[in-house]
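Appendix C: a fully annotated inverse folding record. The material below is reproduced so that readers can follow the format used throughout the book. The structure is listed first as tokens, followed by the designed sequence.
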């Protein structure tokens, strides 16, 4: 299994193991059989053409409607990326959790913003926001994450990662990368937290994903909200990537309730209507001109 697929598989398995959902409704005995939770309803993959020296990465996301707190929904403008060989991801959740240095007990923090990376366990590699939380876990691969409670609603947001300060740890260079979410509706910039990556001159690899996920205990498929989510194309180092290509991947074993189309250069994902028969699991959406 290549590193990208392994990181994505680890992400899915980890979410299944650590999610602490609200009480699930009873599932009818005749309900359709699906894979264990969590369910990636769709993964969209951008190819920016080449690896690039990293200063920043930004992705816009627009959410059409408010999402009930009873639905465990993860919207990831950065579903998976790599700085050098270190995989990372981040986004918005309806129900998040975390702990603090003073209180290691994992607790539910409600709606929140996340920034996570693999291949690390040291809490010294996490810089939470003021009043924020974090996680460090060894479930299916070493993993650290910064989390921050935030009462997000429908609207447009920009999820942005920025290279910050550097330091030397045990004689090796490290670089802090901070995550910020800008609310266009409220005109406010929220610091999610920062993580310490190995290396000094970080290279952003050419494949960057988005995803939409239902996590926690299984609920009836009818509970998946009718929702439109639009991911904008990647903006690298402040410049919109021209000629980026994009595919949509619909995983097997999950409800087929997502459809993806191109809109104004971005990817519009519509949730809520079940597809009777899906002909293709990977669909090219944007191709090279």
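Designed amino acids, in order:
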């Amino acid at each position: 299994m290549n590193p990208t697929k392994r990181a994505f598989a680890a992400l899915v398995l980890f979410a299944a193991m650590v999610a602490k959902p609200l009480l699930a409704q009873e599932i009818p005995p005749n309900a359709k059989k699906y894979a264990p939770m969590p369910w990636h309803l769709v993964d969209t993959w951008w190819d920016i053409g080449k690896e690039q020296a990293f200063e920043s990465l930004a992705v816009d996301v627009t959410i059409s409607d408010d999402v009930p707190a009873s639905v465990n929904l993860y919207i990831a403008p950065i579903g998976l990326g790599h700085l050098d060989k270190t995989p990372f991801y981040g986004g918005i959740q309806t129900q998040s959790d975390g702990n603090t240095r003073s209180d290691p007990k994992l607790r539910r923090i409600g709606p929140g913003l996340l920034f996570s990376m693999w291949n690390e366990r040291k809490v010294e590699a996490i810089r939470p926001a003021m009043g924020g939380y974090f996680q460090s876990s060894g479930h299916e691969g070493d993993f650290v994450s910064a989390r921050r409670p935030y009462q997000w609603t429908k609207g447009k947001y920009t999820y942005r990662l920025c290279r910050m300060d550097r330091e030397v740890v045990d004689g090796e260079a490290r670089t802090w990368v901070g995550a910020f979410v800008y609310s266009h509706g409220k005109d406010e910039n929220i610091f999610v937290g920062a993580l310490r990556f190995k290396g000094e001159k970080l290279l952003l690899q050419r494949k960057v994903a988005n995803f939409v996920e239902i996590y926690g205990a299984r609920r009836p498929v009818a509970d998946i909200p009718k929702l439109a989510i639009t991911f904008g194309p990647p903006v690298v180092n402040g410049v919109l990537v021209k000629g980026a290509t994009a595919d949509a991947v619909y995983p097997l074993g999950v409800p087929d309730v997502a459809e993806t189309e191109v809109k104004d250069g971005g990817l519009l994902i519509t949730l809520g209507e079940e597809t009777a028969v899906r002909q293709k699991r990977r669909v090219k959406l944007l191709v090279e001109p």
